[in-house]
Automatic annotation (TrEMBL):
<feature type="compositionally biased region" description="Low complexity">
    <location>
        <begin position="253"/>
        <end position="289"/>
    </location>
</feature>
<dbReference type="InterPro" id="IPR005706">
    <property type="entry name" value="Ribosomal_uS2_bac/mit/plastid"/>
</dbReference>
<dbReference type="Pfam" id="PF00318">
    <property type="entry name" value="Ribosomal_S2"/>
</dbReference>
<dbReference type="GO" id="GO:0022627">
    <property type="term" value="C:cytosolic small ribosomal subunit"/>
</dbReference>
<dbReference type="InterPro" id="IPR023591">
    <property type="entry name" value="Ribosomal_uS2_flav_dom_sf"/>
</dbReference>
<feature type="compositionally biased region" description="Low complexity">
    <location>
        <begin position="299"/>
        <end position="311"/>
    </location>
</feature>
<dbReference type="InterPro" id="IPR001865">
    <property type="entry name" value="Ribosomal_uS2"/>
</dbReference>
<comment type="similarity">
    <text>Belongs to the universal ribosomal protein uS2 family.</text>
</comment>
<protein>
    <recommendedName>
        <fullName>Small ribosomal subunit protein uS2</fullName>
    </recommendedName>
</protein>
<keyword id="KW-0689">Ribosomal protein</keyword>
<keyword id="KW-0687">Ribonucleoprotein</keyword>
<dbReference type="GO" id="GO:0003735">
    <property type="term" value="F:structural constituent of ribosome"/>
</dbReference>
<dbReference type="GO" id="GO:0006412">
    <property type="term" value="P:translation"/>
</dbReference>
<feature type="region of interest" description="Disordered">
    <location>
        <begin position="250"/>
        <end position="311"/>
    </location>
</feature>
Length: 311
């Protein structure tokens, strides 16, 4: 089944590029034609590259990876936040902070600070031990951190892939990802450099509908990867530790108690038998002593009988 159809791409305006005077010659192979001073992107190539990006993202997430959604331009902010939240992935839809990937250790400290501020009750002035002005300043700090870092507050490590809308605008994110060798999946408009992206998706990165469609496709790939990952883990857990019904647990418990009680009852009997065995051993020598006495009596009686016969 195709990830997306040509009709859907056409309806979303994915095929519209930039003006002919604003283009990157490296994008020539992705251009189908020129109409009214605007380049038209070859949607057949777009379909092919979308499939590659889709399967890469799916396999990355299925192996336990994480995809960071990046798009700070107005046309992409809503789609980035909605789709990333839908699949539980981190995102950046406001200003990209320098070092967000290359200096992630410092960023985690700011995220921790954000979580501390979120745990404060700014309405409880008497209980906080702070003045209203101090609480107001802390609340402003929280709002500022939430705006820039709220999308990555649960990102514990650098991502295994990055989805970028408009690689030209998000050049800082592209540079940091390339320094860390993080694969980049991004929309390539006719003014972008395809050499900066590992998995290119030729398309319109300015139209809201185009950005929303392509971002949704990547989010669907993430969702499929999560399903595949959970299916694999679920199978392993089912084999390792299948939950036991209550009735079976009670039955096994009763059998275990009975099994423990049986040896306990047999133990006194075994001890009694052990006590009787020495007595039997003592009786055996007595019987052995009686046997020679019987033989002696028989020997005495035998000569007496012989003398009687002789008379």
């Amino acid at each position: 089944m195709a990830v997306v159809t040509t009709r859907q791409l056409l309806e979303s305006g994915v095929h519209f590029g930039h003006q002919t005077r604003r283009w990157n010659p490296k994008m020539k192979r992705f251009i189908f034609a020129e109409r009214n001073g605007i380049y038209i992107i070859d949607l057949q190539l777009s379909l092919r590259y979308i499939d590659k990006a889709y399967h890469f993202v799916k396999s990355t997430v299925a192996r336990g990876g994480q995809v960071l959604f990046v798009g700070t331009k107005k046309q992409a902010q809503e789609a980035i936040a909605d789709q990333a939240t839908r699949v539980g992935m981190p995102y950046v839809n406001q200003r990209w902070l320098g070092g967000m990937l290359t200096n992630f250790h410092t960023v985690t400290k700011r995220i921790q600070r954000l979580k501390e501020l979120e745990g404060m009750d700014f309405a409880d002035v008497p209980g906080s031990g702070l003045t209203k002005k101090e609480l107001l300043q802390l609340e402003r700090e929280k709002n500022k951190l939430a705006k820039t870092l709220g999308g990555i507050r649960d990102m514990a490590r650098t991502p295994q892939a990055v989805w970028i809308v408009d690689t030209k605008k998000e050049h800082l994110a592209v540079d940091e990802a390339r320094k860390l060798n993080i694969p980049i999946v991004g929309i390539l408009d006719t003014n972008c450099d395809p050499d900066e992206v590992d998995y290119a998706v030729p398309g319109n990165d300015d139209a809201i509908r185009s950005v929303a469609l392509l971002t949704r496709i990547i989010a669907d790939a993430v969702a499929d990867g999560l399903i595949e990952r959970s299916a694999g883990r679920g199978g392993e857990q089912a084999v390792e530790a299948e939950p036991m019904p209550d009735w079976e647990r009670e039955l096994l418990g009763a059998e275990g108690e009975a099994a423990e009680a049986a040896p306990a009852e047999e133990a006194p009997v075994a001890e009694a038998a052990a006590e009787e065995s020495p007595a039997a051993a003592e009786e055996t020598p007595a019987a052995a002593e009686e046997a020679p006495e019987a033989d002696a009596e028989a020997a005495v009686e035998a000569p007496a009988a012989e003398s009687t016969d002789a008379n």
